[in-house]
Amino acid sequence: MLELRDLRVEYGAAPALWGVSLAIPERKLVCIVGPNGAGKTTLINAIAGLHRAKSGRIVMDGTDMTSLPSHRYCSAGIAIVPEGRRLFTRMSVRENLEVGSYTRAARKDRDRSLDYICTLFPAVRDKLDSVAGSLSGGQQQMVAIGRALMARPRLLLLDEPSLGLSPLIVQAMFGAIREVNAAGTAVLLVEQNVANALEIADFAYLLEEGRIVAEGAPNVLFNNPELRRAYLGIVPGH
Amino acid sequence: MTFPSGTLLAQSALSGVFIGSLYGLLGLGVGLAWGLLHVINLAHFAFAFLAAYLCYQLASVGGMDPLLTLALIVPLFAALGAALQWVLERFDVSPLNSLLATFGIAAIIEAGIQWEWTADFRKLESVYAGRTFKVGVLFVPLPELLTLLLSLILAFGIWAAMRYTNLGRALRALAEDAPIAAAFGINRRAHALVLAGVCGALAGIAGVCLALTYTLTPSQIYAWVGVVFAAVMLGGLGSALGPLTGGIVIGVSEAVTMAFVSPSWAPIVSFSLLIGLLLLKPERS
Ligand SMILES: Nc1ncnc2c1ncn2[C@@H]1O[C@H](COP(=O)(O)OP(=O)(O)O)[C@@H](O)[C@H]1O
Ligand SMILES: [Mg+2]
């Protein structure tokens, strides 16, 4: 469904991605892992249309998106839960969700989407009329995921959704992500929380210093003892 | 200082409310552009005066009802506002530079007005001028009352639109985090043009109110800048109801000072309020 071909992104003259190629098939949950500063956020933001690529192609359903303005990405079926959530903190939770369903197609399903999100995250229902900035970190993350789901995406991009959250909330979050994926939405998940992410992923890429250095099914990819030690903190034999 | 009579106090406060509503009406467009588009638009004041002169021309010379001129002035100034925004975007003007650029545009418009209408004072003599009601002991002039009503309707209308329409929510989202708003499908450029058009229309309406209530002369354009900025800062950037509230607070304090202390003290009141506010609540600027 989504295909990146030799994508190169720069900040000023400093390249952050050196030519990344990857594919996200329909309905799959794909995970990108890698150390801090590897370029994961840059990559996911480029797919959401937040960064212009220097060269290479972003192709969604066979359509070249690379030169489109960022407001055209959402109606192609892509929605992002950005790093640090970036809610509209001065607006209410309901308004945040409504902005999520801004595109014409999503607007038609607004009530149904809202209902779905309140079922997925019951805590959100009680907070609909609160100012988004007043919510706890975990609740804000749920609203950020909800806002993206309001867009009715076929590809959901998640940038470190578990960052800074308590283990209990992280479990709920991963449960919800799995549920969304099971309902047919493809997911691209960037995570520091590698063990959890790989458990639910169909396919994984390892990104280091702006390059994909390994890829494969999670259990195959992380059979390599060195990678296990580096990313899962697991010492072989234990 | 003599002991104030109740009637004089009430009449002064009322005239303060009236002039304050015009500060608020001018401030509404200035504050929206500043808070949501990050454009500090001095040309707004020149647009308002240009609209006032057009209204004067159409009504005095053309014999139109001054309120009917809105039908021409509103679309014309909406287009002007959007065109200005298009140019500012085209050259990627920063907020500070927008202040300088729009100051230049104001000067050009002032020169144009001067050329067309000269620097002589112009006063629109319309069916509304000089009409006054008596409510209890207070005199209520009709043009000022119309200005107050228009300001209230527009401020509350825009407040509601910001809260309850997709367009309003999109504008607020853009103001807080434009890239993320765009990622959800909101076309920033198109929305900025629409909002700038609304601000232009507001300048046009404020201009008609100016023509109804004031004697016009081109250099007066700048006399309004300080006090309207004070009203905007007092009420909060990007707020719909703030400038009107701020404008009325300033208008009333000015009018009461004028009546009971001395007219020359009036500007000191509004700027003391502004400076005090900036010192006490620096995060507002
Ligand atoms: N806005 C920016 N300006 C300049 N350099 C940046 C910016 N954002 C990220 N970088 C650089 O790009 C590289 C990749 O960053 P990022 O995509 O945030 O990595 P990750 O999400 O994997 O931690 C880092 O070297 C970082 O310093
Ligand atoms: Mg990151």
Fraction in helix of chain A: 25-40%
Bound molecules: adenosine-5'-diphosphate, magnesium ion
Which range best describes the helical content of chain B: under 10%, 10-25%, 25-40%, 40-55%, 55-70% or over 70%?
over 70%
Radius of gyration of chain A, in angstroms, nearest whole number:
17 Å
- What would the CATH topology of chain B be? ABC transporter involved in vitamin B12 uptake, BtuC
Categorize the overall geometry of chain B: globular
Overall domain count of chain B: 1
What distance separates the N and C termini of chain B?
36 Å
Greatest chain-chain interface? A-B, 28 and 17 residues
Number of strands of chain B: 4
Tell me the CATH architecture of chain B.
Orthogonal Bundle
Q: Please tally the β strands of chain A and state the result.
A: 10
- Strand coverage percent of chain A: 25-35%
Question: What is the helix/strand order of chain A?
Answer: EEEHEEEHHHHHEHEHEEHH
What does this entry show, briefly?
The complex is a heterodimer of chains A (238) and B (285). Chain A is of the alpha/beta class and 238 residues long.
List the helices and strands and how they pair.
The complex is a heterodimer of chains A (238) and B (285).
Chain A: E1 2-11, E2 14-24, E3 29-33, H1 40-47, E4 55-60, E5 63-64, E6 78-81, H2 93-100, H3 104-108, H4 110-120, H5 122-125, H6 137-150, E7 155-159, H7 167-182, E8 186-190, H8 194-200, E9 203-208, E10 211-216, H9 218-221, H10 225-232
Parallel strand pairs in A: 3-8, 3-9, 6-7, 7-8
Antiparallel strand pairs in A: 1-2, 1-4, 4-5, 9-10
Chain B: H1 6-37, H2 43-61, H3 70-90, H4 95-117, E1 122-123, E2 132-135, E3 138-141, H5 142-164, H6 166-176, H7 178-183, H8 188-213, E4 215-216, H9 225-235, H10 242-260, H11 266-280
Helix pairs in contact in B: 1-5, 1-8, 1-9, 1-10, 2-3, 2-4, 2-8, 3-8, 5-6, 5-8, 6-8, 9-10, 9-11, 10-11
Bound molecules: adenosine-5'-diphosphate and magnesium ion.
